[in-house]
Structures are given as structure tokens and as C-alpha cells.
Amino acid sequence: MSKILIVDDEMQIRTLLARMMELEGYEVCQAGDCRAALKQLELQSPDVALCDVFLPDGNGVDLVLAIKKAAPNVEVILLTAHGNIPDGVQAIKNGAFDYITKGDDNNKIIPLVSRAVEKAAMNARLEKLEKKVGQAYSFDSILGESKSLKDAVSLAQKVAVTDVPVLLTGETGTGKEVFAQAIHYSSKRARQNFVAVNCSSFSKELLESEMFGHKAGSFTGALKDKKGLFEEANNGTIFLDEIGEMAFELQAKLLRILETGEYIKIGDTKPTRVNVRIIAATNRNLPEEIAKGRFREDLFYRLSVFQVHLPPLRERAGDIRLLAKAFVKNFSAQLARSITEITPEFLTTLELQPWKGNIRELRNVIERSLIVCEGEQLTIADLPLDIQNAHYEQSDEETPGSFELSAMERRHIARVLEYTKGNKTEAARLLKIGLTTLYRKVEEYKI
């Protein structure tokens, strides 16, 4: 049940309004002045406040500010005996939902309160969603106990509360966008847009249009004005992934934004102003790109005011088990699978992989393993064939009997199965053995 706070120094008016609200099914609390209103706000947590403008210890227009500061989700409707346009304008500026005159607008109160209650409920849902999003993209969501990762997180947390540009470096798949989101949602821009663009996904012309927008008629196919991603990210954060892939000509435009906060759209003559925080990421060695004439040195120094390097997964092998278990939990929910156990051999095999694709590759392997798993236990047999083969080859190298004919036969069968992508009929044909024999050997060698 929604709750309405009625603030008026006249008992008769409070009683009348309270009766009206109760008949509409609302719970009511009352206050006779500003001080009592703020106390009721704290004790009762109303959804909407109906406030008189003239109160014994203050002005309702100023009270709106105090209410919105103490409880931003509460909607305030101001009531006045004498309409005053400047007061009404100031009340709306202070955050009031509406400003109406007593007597003349009595028939408007009920529908107005109903709309205000809906708005307050929406505010509460939005706040809950923002908290959920903030938690999902917070630094706490970055899993790992290795020193190299903790050092990177610590640096990112320090820069998050500032407004300076950030350059994230590291191999592909190390989680640069996750870090960028964590920085954004830990900053003062958290309630504004986070816009991500991969600079390697577009041609030079298309990237310029996507990032900066264009005016209608500026080129063939430009039928109407288009807002660019920098405009979409205004007052928020833009994440420029693979910045090293950006065309040299566009780098000058980006530098201008960093220096002046302005840029000119395609086909426009007037500059567009934006207030955007830039987080860039690259897996390239930008100093080497500068030496080769492919990246602007002045842009590099503006982007790299603060650098954070993300370590590759092979340098934080101790985190693989933690990440794998987290991915299994997430994908189990998404795929409606009940995985009750992960065998030690499965996890050990993951720890021994080079993971050239880093966390992204590990994530994909876990998802694939859950899809092919037929029981409730993840075993090495659920891993891709190349990972299984690497595991058995390493095991063979560590075993005195690795030169035995059976060991060599098992390796050869495993390679053929990998070549046929698991097609046993085709593998039996290539091996020139019967399909039944192949099944027996697969079982015998635990391939």
C-alpha cells in the first residue's frame, strides 16, 4: 500500500485531505510544519508528499529541496491558496512533481496523486535496478586472488573516482571491458550512460559516422541527422576498445575532444560540445605503433594519463579454478543444467593450458563443456579434444611407458578423432579399422 505524507498547518485541511487519500486506498501520515514533515519522512518513508507552500517554520518550495535531498524517490506535490507563477517555477526546479492551487484544483488532486505514486514506484524500481547493475559491474565482480590482478584492480579503483582518461592494456580476452565498466560504475558518472565501441569493427568512414554522427545529406545514404556515440555518452563514459586500430585521420578528432570537449560532425559547420570520460583499451604496443607512424604520439600521451595493465591468464594460473567454478555456476543457471561435481582432473587440465585467448577462451571452453556434458559431473571427457589430447600427451611424456606401442596408438587415435571433429565413423575409415574396434579402443584408452 502506498503512503502519502500530508503537510499543512491547518488541521481541518489535513483531515480533509487525509480522508480523501484513505478513501482511495492510501495509507496516510501527517505533519503540521517543515520540521515535523522531515521527521515523518524519516519514520514513515512515504511515497508522495502533499505540502502546503506557507508553513509556520518555513516555505514549502524550500521544503521540496530538503525532501528530495533526504529521500530522492519521494514525489512532492505543492498546494497553495494563492497561485504564484515564480513559486511554481522554482518548485519544479527544486524537484516538485507538480504545483497546484487549493480549491480551484481540488478535482485534480486524486489523479495527480495517482500519477505521483506511479512515478515514485518507478523511481524505486530504477534505484533497485541501478544497484543491481552497479553490483554486477563493480570491482567485486572481478574474480581473482593473484597479486598481479589485485594490483591492477587497486590501480583502477584509485583512478575510478577521478575524471581522467584511462588506458587499459593487455592481451585479447583479459577482461578490459569488464574493468572499464567497473571504473564507470564506481565513478561519479555511474548514473549516466556507458557506451562501448570496438574500433576494429568498422571501416574508417563508418566508424567516424558512428562515433561523431553526421548531418542529413552529408553523404549518400545520410537521409537524416544522426547522433554519434559521443553524444549518446554525454555526461557519462565512452569505452574505445582496440584504440590501436583507429584510422590515423580519426585520431586527430579524438585528440580534439580530449583537449577541448568539442568535435565537428560529418557535414556540419558548427562544433558539438560533449562532457565525456574516455577509457581506451588496446592489445597493441602503442609506442611501437607510434614509431611505425600508425598512432599519434600526442594522442597516446593524452589517453595514457593513467595506465592499467591487465595480466594474461597464464600469469595468474592460481585464479583458473576460481574462474572455472564461477563460469560453471553461471552457465548451469543459463542452460538449466544441474552440475553437482567438477572432477579434480578437469580442473588440473584447465590449469595446464596456455590460454592464448585468456579469460574469454576459458569461458567459452566451460560453456562448451556444460553443453556436451551428459551427467551431473564435469570430467575431462567433456573438454574439447585438443585440450584432452594435450593433457594425455603431457601425461605420456611424464610416464616411463610413453614409448610403448599402446601409448603411441592412443595418441594417434586421439589425433585422428580431432581431425574428424569427433566423427567416429570417419575416424574408423581413415584408421582402416572397424567401427566396433574403434569404440573398444576409445573406451580402453579413455580417449
TrEMBL record:
Residue span, Response regulatory domain: 3-117
Domain Sigma-54 factor interaction, residue spans: 142-371
A Pfam entry, by short name: Sigma54_activat
Segment forming the signal sequence: none
InterPro entries attached to this UniProt entry: AAA+_ATPase, AAA_lid_NorR, CheY-like_superfamily, Homeodomain-like_sf, HTH_Fis, P-loop_NTPase, Sig_transdc_resp-reg_receiver, Sigma_54_int
Keyword annotations from UniProtKB, A to Z: ATP-binding, Nucleotide-binding, Phosphoprotein, Transcription, Transcription regulation
Residue numbers carrying 4-aspartylphosphate: D52
Superkingdom as given in the UniProt entry: Bacteria
Gene Ontology BP term (one): phosphorelay signal transduction system
Database matches in Gene3D superfamilies: 1.10.8.60, 3.40.50.2300, Homeodomain-like, P-loop containing nucleotide triphosphate hydrolases
GO molecular function, one term: sequence-specific DNA binding
PANTHER family xref list: SIGMA L-DEPENDENT TRANSCRIPTIONAL REGULATOR YQIR-RELATED (PTHR32071:SF121), TRANSCRIPTIONAL REGULATORY PROTEIN (PTHR32071)
Protein name: Sigma-54-dependent Fis family transcriptional regulator
